[in-house]
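hey m, so remember when u said the tokens were messed up on ur end? i reran from scratch. heres the input so u can diff it against urs
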Amino acid sequence: MDPEKLQKVSISPEQIRKVYDQGPDAVINLVLPLVETINWLIDVVKDQDKRIKNLENQLKTNSRNSSKPPSTDPSFSKQNSRTKRKGTSKPKSRKGTTLRQIPNPDDIETHQVSSCQHCQCDLSNVPVKALDKRQVIEIPPLHIHVTEYQGEVKKCPHCGEISKATFPVGVTHKAQYGPRVQSLAVYLRDYQMLPTQRTIGLFKDLFGLTISEGTLVNFTHRGSKLLMNVVEAIKSKLQKSNLVHFDETGINVAGKLKWLHTAGNTQYTYLCPHEKRGHIAFDKIGILPIFKGVAVHDFWKSYDRYDCTHSYCNAHLIRELIFASENLGQPWAEFMLKLLLDIKKEVDSSRYESIEGNLFTAFEKQYEQIILQGYAANPPPEKTGKRGRPAKGKALCLVERMDHYRDDILRFAKEPAVPFSNNLAERDLRMSKVRQKISGTFRNLERSMDYCRIRSYISTAQKQKINVFTALTDLFLPDVQLKIL
């Protein structure tokens, strides 16, 4: 029925009696359209009610009960401003730190005492009783250092041929930037996330060095090319690892949505961009098709097609359980939330970082009871007569997921090396979001690949406690063995 053709109907009791007196057919012709209209309106009300509930649920989502970041919470800025305005916030207790003296200073200046400050007696030949030491920690004047290499050219008096001196490895142009200039540029752009123009300004202000935008891009591209074999070695290490975290996030490449994929553990990080999010990208990247260890990830369905042991991120589940409890009125979700946190607490306090025997069996029984409560509170939807399966709703889908994948959800409690959540992978991806907020989008997929190789190297160096600037300098130095492998 077309809503635009609906019109208000007014009928009096006398008109109804008149229709009644005309016989059964007249009554049928009057009632049937009314029944049809009422049923249509009932369906409209149900659909509108469903839409309203969905919109209300969207408004109720925040960083506690969904994957939205805290900065998107409606009350985030209001709470901060209100707290500052009223002065109700209590300062956090912080442990203070004192600047300590360096045991081996670069320079020492001795200030002598020649006379007594009280009676002016000569103290030149009096032995020193003690030294009062004070240090000033300073940065030396910043300036560029230019080394000119002069190669001799000689003509042999015997054969008449010209011989030229050999320059050091890496010195190939009439004028070129050294490894530290290149590594500092990459450090500022791909680690500290400075935009290109601010990086140019920093070099000019601190060193009086004018570097073009194209040169900065070339530094990044050169570093990426030097890392091709290194990143492939990182990928090979992850393929053979016992446990790897996997995740993906959307990135903007030339105004279009692409996907940044990560695979990593406590020692290595591998980042790679791709046009797709699911198994096509996983197959192209080439880690999951070979990997046989424990894969930690969220409930993205594409991961399940790979033949490895799976462990699901419980941080995602906790947010979903909070939403189901607070916004969908599901008591079982609150019980499940408490149970997962109790199991995590028990695992954290265990010397073996896992739970075995009767205690784990008891937790499994509680898990089963809560699942049954969830099914009882969310019976399967009745068929409506419309095409397709009736919608189950978020609550029932959550119950079924926690039922079917219970072994993978509780794997963190049974195996010591398996973590509770997939936060490691999310941390590995977080800097890509920071980079997009500060420096904008990637111009093309090749530039995003350069970024991913360098960030893979930087993140791996951080995980192995290697100084990032030192690692980048080693990258641009010729014939230097990189420490991360």
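this time it looks ok to me. The first helix runs from residue 13 to 21. if urs says something different then somethings off w ur setup not the seq
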